[in-house]
Amino acid sequence: MSRKRSSKVLDLDDPVEAQSFDYPDSLVSSAKGNFDSSPTKATKRYVRPLKRRPRAIPMERETETETGGEEDWGHPTTPAPVVGPWEAFDDFGLASSSGTDLADDAAAVILGANSAVGFSDNDVASYLDAVESFAAGFYQVGESIFAVEGWDTQRCQATAGWYHLQHLIINSELHVACTCPQAVRNFCIHQTFFKEYDVERLLQGRTLRVDSTDAVLYFRQQVPNVNEFVTMFSVRSFSSSQLKGRAIVTHTGRAYSAGLWRCSKDPNSKTICVHVQACFKILEELTTTPEGDLDEVLEGAETAQALASITRKEAVSHLPVLPPASISLKSDPQLYPRPPPFRSPPSVTIALDPQASCPCPSGRTFHNPSDPTVVRQCRIFALHTVFHAQIELQRCPTCPRNRRRYIGPDLRTQGLFNYNNSILVSHELLDEYTISFVTSETPFTAFVAVVAHRYSVSGAVFMGEDLFRSVWFSYAGQMALEDDMTCVRCGLSPETVIWDGITLAFGRKHVSSTLTPPTEHSPQSIIRSNVKRLPKQQLIPDTRLRTKLRQVLKGPKLDESLSDEGSDTEPPNSDQDKEHRHRQSQHMLEHLNRVDDVYEKLNIECSALATLFRETFGAVAILNKKAVPAPYRNLFRQIAAEESVLQMINGSSLEDLGLFLSNPCRAQVTKLVTIPALYQVLQSDSDIEPLIPVARWLHEKASRTLKGLSVETLRLDDPKSKLSSEDPASDWKLVNWMLLQLTPNTAPTTVSTS
């Protein structure tokens, strides 16, 4: 700077010069404001440091152009600061590989971040009911990470935002960090609930193998009245391992390649960010995998789990209830007088009854008349509206106090179903859905929409779809249907039980965090350590050979392929006819080549089977216009099936096949009536000698597969293997209802036994 120019610079430290100098008004007003704008980074805004609060973190809050926090689909939320109490976790080693020493002052900072105050017991209890009723999302997406839905404590309802929560044990003390805006103000219901409810102890012993994956699917539900789904993912940060870097990705649509993608970290971006790209493969497999593909479902089993599916397994009401009057049988026992419909609010407090209980995990705890009671608010959902009432409860002495469990009345004699002491539903309303499903297979979505419209007439609001589904399954599991399932021919213990519906696995598109498979373990489960999945249980282990064999079965019909051969009609005149005949010739040539290929490979498996195949499908049969008999086509269809050979030949049928092979003659053919495919072929052919080697091959294959699966000698009738009668898993009805519990937009699937 030149001397001449420097002489004009004011010395503001000089009182005289400072008094004669005035700053521009705009600069003065800007200095008095709380926010500054960076002159070089227009997308950044900075807030001045706030004054230190008691037990709060001194912070500098930074908000990027991402004006919404982790927001739900289409609904902006309150701007979520990027830096908050979770910053302490990242700086001191929770999610970052750097920084392994935890200084005392660092621990003090983290402790201050986890001292949320200001919530009453009713606030936490209301949020607990919402979480256990699926009304407020709380999903475990990692070993210590959760995706949580925003919660309005004033209105007691979920907000549109989704956030992340993480917990850590430091010096034997639990610390919780959350990315919701309330956590910055030290007023987070998620942190308070996690610590007071002791969620960390509840999750001990449960493993969730999703920490190594880039994206975790935790929520999927159909959009009402639209053939589209909302799917949500929790995606890790690709630039750091910090909690604040995780993103909530939402997709609305039918397929991964269509619909609307939104990312909480890049809400205004017009390009596909890395978080969305990480979700492509998961959603593609989810929407394209065929139903019932067991291997695919098992590979994709690393999904999130709802906290509600862990905390609450049973309702407060526990006594058997009568089926709907219109479908009751004369033989049904009258457990209690059927109450009239509940259609008016109670005039007095709903009192405890002798059967009042708490569904403790270790077994129900019943009402003790000598212990004190409390009165709480509850809602009664009737057929046309909701009533607000008071209910008498008693604190459960068995459950830990931080669980906030209460003993409540059963209320079946009043026509009410007590779900969780705060949600009561009339039998009339629940029976209406039962009848709707029985008569027209009404989905939950449609029924809830109809009842919500009915409620709106009186200005009331009906419960959400997730909550109603959970209530109905709990209620349906208590219907007195025990005596209806006994087969009049087989008795109580039939040799074969057929489940009409889902057996071993769910279609991948039905998999959700609230769906519990029938293979879930319990402490009383029989341990069969030697049981392993046996691969290649099909009759033909070669996948390509099975595919080609099925293609041969679908080959051109003989009458159509040879209809023009040797005819006296005039040769085709048009190019179109020539092209048509050329295509027919090409198809027939490909078919014959495929037949030869299948014959050569079948000859390796069983020469008699290969000979039978060539005689039935070979070129000689085609030239002689010999149509394939239906029994032979069905036999080869069974041989090429993509299923275990034991589906064709079970244990008892295998014994019958062995008896036939001990004396293979025409008189013994009826012993194979339990193997229809083989029996019909033997019945239709006068000469059974060429088929006996095929029968021996089938017997060998089935015996080998059954032996490979029979690796345990412990039987269910062994006294050591008896399930405890107190074990919920020993109740066949629980397996029944678990099989029914499909996706939110799907009606239950009928399950029957025979």
TrEMBL record:
Residues 27-41 have a biased composition (Polar residues). Residues 1-80, 556-586 are annotated as: Disordered. Residues 344-475 form the HMG domain. InterPro entries: HMGXB3_CxC4. Residues 42-55 have a biased composition (Basic residues). This is HMG domain-containing protein.
